[in-house]
Specification:
Layout (H helix, E strand, L loop, with lengths): L1 H23 L9 H4 L6 H9 L5 H6 L7 H6 L5 H6 L9 H4 L7 H5 L8 H6 L5 H6 L7 H4 L7 H4 L22 H11 L3 H4 L1 H9 L5 H6 L1 H6 L2 H5 L6 H6 L7 H6 L5 H6 L18 H9 L11 H6 L3 H30 L4 H16 L1
Helix pairs in contact: 1-24, 24-25
Length: 368
């Protein structure tokens, strides 16, 4: 675990150095991002994005008080923990408890230490640290039950005890719960409120982005197949390149396919027959920071792919980071293996290498 944390720290520190390079490098009119943000990397937008990035740690924030951090987004940063808040009283946490309310590192115990009026109970109710038992055991608290319905700790059984009960309250937020059975939810809607989906585009968007949605859900429900937004389906994490190949008649939205987390740069290179939107790959979570940095310093730079630096900064690069950490871990393991084998074969006289090494040492001593 410590080795993983060390590698993650290396990634985060390198990411911070890259961010600082962006700050100090003037973007001229030829840069793809110039027309969007006018090279103003000290803008409110820039620091708002950087403040919430999972690649930015508390050490980076604390060591650079001269930067205009967005404290609301700092509070929502997944690297901020209750321990950090307790040990750093001088920082403006009290101004952004509503944002801390949605921080995945904070549980009910930490929230109860704060005055309830400072909290955002919608955020707390949906916080993955909150369980159904906590809600039931603390019914005096101002829970937002719509938000509770989308909390990922609640299962389909928790939310819908009796799907056949016509009086069961159908919360639109159910469509946002990642544990929901999409086909069962669609059937429930059709049975009890059939005109809901045509009236509520937001629910269709929530279904389309729900991580439990599968391609089978679409194939088995013609209405969903036709009604769900193509761009959301095309970028959905359960949509793979194989599914795309097997369903050429579906109107794929290739801008979103290019950003799909299952699509890698290697796949794009291997399939030039598809109409990829290369300029959008800067938004793909498989993007590798070290590769981006090489492009950034190359003669053609990011202009070659028309990548906006704004898209790169807003990209968490989660899959690219995990891939890099995995590669570095394998490199370290192989290095240790080589070292172990070298010690074994060079010191155990049952091996020829060790006997030669020992013999050479004896000869050197005799000459001395």
């Amino acid at each position: 675990m410590s080795a993983y944390l060390d590698l993650k720290k290396q990634w985060n520190d390198h990411y911070w150095k890259f961010i600082e390079k962006l700050r100090h490098k003037f973007l001229g009119p030829d840069d793809p991002g110039y027309n969007v943000y006018q090279s103003d990397w000290d803008s409110e937008w820039f620091w708002s994005v950087v403040s919430i990035s999972p690649n930015i740690t508390w050490d980076h924030i604390k060591q650079h008080p001269e930067y205009p951090w967005d404290w609301e987004n700092v509070c929502a940063n997944p690297n901020i923990t209750p321990g950090i808040v307790r040990q750093n009283h001088s920082y403006p946490w009290n101004k952004c408890w509503s944002f801390l309310s949605g921080n995945i590192n904070f549980g009910l115990k930490e929230f109860l230490e704060v005055h309830p009026k400072q909290l955002d109970w919608e955020q707390i109710s949906a916080n993955p640290k909150i369980t159904l038992d906590m809600v039931l055991e603390n019914d005096h608290l101002p829970w937002d039950h719509n938000a509770v319905a989308r909390n990922k700790n609640l299962t389909w059984e928790d939310l819908v005890d009796d799907p056949d009960d016509p009086d069961h309250p159908l919360f639109p937020e159910l469509a946002r719960n990642p544990n929901i059975n999409i086909t069962a939810l669609f059937r429930l809607i059709q049975e009890h409120e059939p005109d809901l989906l045509p009236r509520r585009e937001d629910i269709l968007n929530d279904i389309a982005t729900n991580p439990s949605l599968t391609w089978d859900d679409l194939k088995n429900n013609p209405y969903l197949y036709e009604a769900l937004p193509r761009d959301q389906i095309s970028s959905h994490p359960n949509i793979t390149l194989d599914i795309i190949k097997e369903n050429p008649d579906y109107p794929w939205y290739w801008r979103s396919v290019t950003t799909n987390p299952n699509i890698t740069w290697e796949m794009i290179q291997d399939h030039p027959e598809f109409p990829w939107e290369i300029s959008c790959y800067a938004e793909n979570p498989n993007l590798d920071l070290f590769w981006v940095e090489k492009l950034y310093h190359s003669p053609e730079g990011l202009r070659k792919y028309q990548w906006y630096l704004s898209d790169i900064v807003t990209n968490d690069m989660e899959k690219g980071r995990d891939k890099w950490i995995g590669q570095q871990a394998i490199r370290i393991i192989k290095t240790y293996q080589i070292q172990r084998y070298w010690r074994k074969y060079s010191s155990d006289p049952t091996y020829a290498l060790a006997r030669r090494s020992i013999g050479n040492c004896l000869k050197s001593e005799e000459k001395a």
